[in-house]
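[READ THE FOLD]
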Amino acid sequence: MFEPNIYIKRRKHLAREIGDGLIVLIGNKPVPMNYPSNTLRFRQDSNFLYYCGLDYENLVLTIDCASEKSTLYGDDLTVDEIVWEGQRTSIKTMAELSGIDRFETTSKLQGDIIRSNDIHTLPVYREDQKYFLQFLLNNSDISSSKPLVACVIKQRSIKSDDEISEINSALKITSEMHSIAMRSTRDGLLEQEIVGLMEGYALQHGSRMAYPVIFTINGEILHSNIYDNVMKSGDLTLNDSGAESPLHYASDITRTFPVSGKFTPIQKDIYDLVYEMQQTALEFCKPKTSYKDAHLAAAKKAVMGLTKLGLMSGDPEEAVSKGAHALFYPHGLGHMLGLDVHDMEGLGEDLVGYDDKNQRSDQFGLAYLRFSKDLEPGFVLTVEPGIYFISHLIDQWKADNKLSEHINYAEVEKFKGFGGIRIEDNIAISDKGYSVLGPHIPKTTEEIEDIMQS
């Protein structure tokens, strides 16, 4: 946990912003895996962590906006529970660790909530949260508080030095995970063997995955979590994986590398183009610049490069405006990063990534841009362009003769089976521009070949 004063300041700031009423923040409960007593590994709600840092099950935090006082609700374990689970920190001590003013048993919670005239809650993303909140409110309206959502997003969007330090600590583990993957990958291994090495390293060092590992020779599948393919020389392997820090701050890194340890000429051409896309996007990563502009600049660079390779044609700006690049680059440039790998997405992706100035497009590809706002100092984001050859998408567009003035389908057909390439780093925006977080992870083709052949 951070020092208590950090959580106290966060809660008081939130109370002042809301002004009146009672804020109710519900911690997570255990989730059964396949029967009630066999639960998944516990992960605390990120908003709950942000405002009190307590990484324990079955807790609720309330903040009285008028008095700026906070109350923690929870129950100490019974002797029977201690027999099976062991002792845990008392509710009294938890409150002290977080600088919380009062603590009460869970039995007092419903009565205290009902006595308040104005209840502020956040959106629920789990059914158990929904039912618990309905119970607390006597089945009355459980719609979330728009002012609370807006205030939490504004507050959590700006990362403190302490938070960035946590992300860097996660990236230290992630860096070694990626190095292990590059050094260990070779012809004839199953993907799952490398995934096991990475997850094992994180576990050995007191960490866990921030999200399910994406490790696949089918890199054109954007979020593949199947690891049963045999890797063969000639394949490219895409590794999108990141560890959490001790306080649950996420990291999110992608590298793509050849199973053989040596890029073929065409693999190198596409890889270098994705690298140039990322470098182009990074030039836009500074305060008061729209992240959408960074995304579109990367897309334009993709069109220019693919045109040189004979896969596209025509004016690059026109091609991007029509969305022709999305056949090869069908996702957004990146997203915010913090206590969630897609930070605060549970509060509403449009609310986190868009505003009155920057509205979401409905154009294929651009519609998947998760973050479009003007950048501000303190923002932490991923920058992750890619180029993919997705057979089903190619077949669909070709059958419709879609944007054929910009796409050379005869040449594109030759790339079916190529896979996909994505390069991703995590950055923090400062007054002067941006900084890449964490240790350097081999990224150029030369660096990747060197570590794979060492």
The longest helix spans residues 161-184. Residues 161-453 form a domain with the Creatine Amidinohydrolase fold (CATH 3.90.230.10). The longest strand covers residues 236-241.
